[in-house]
């Protein structure tokens, strides 16, 4: 843990709780994109 404790980086900790990082890169195949979209859509139904 490199000696850091909770609260050492409040801005980073807040961002980690609020930001959703989706996989995005040029080599992403269409089936992979569809899978990501389906997973996000399923999650948002909750």
Description of the molecule:
The chain is mainly alpha-helical. The chain has one domain. 54% of the residues lie in helices and 0% in strands. The protein is built from 2 helices and no strands. The longest helix has 16 residues. The N and C termini lie far apart (33 Å). The mean pLDDT is 93.
Considering the chains and any ligands shown, give keywords for the structure.
single chain, about 45 residues, mainly alpha, 2 helices, elongated
Number of domains: 1
What ranges have pLDDT less than 50 throughout 5 or more consecutive residues?
Answer: none
Q: How would you spell out the order of helices and strands?
A: HH
Largest sheet: none
Describe the SSE topology.
Blueprint: H1 10-18, H2 30-45
In short:
The protein is mainly alpha-helical. 54% of the residues lie in helices and 0% in strands.
């Amino acid at each position: 843990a490199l000696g850091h404790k909770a609260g050492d980086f409040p801005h980073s900790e807040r961002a980690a709780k609020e930001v959703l990082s989706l996989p995005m890169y040029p080599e992403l195949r269409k089936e992979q994109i569809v899978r990501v979209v389906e997973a996000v859509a399923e999650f948002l139904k909750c």
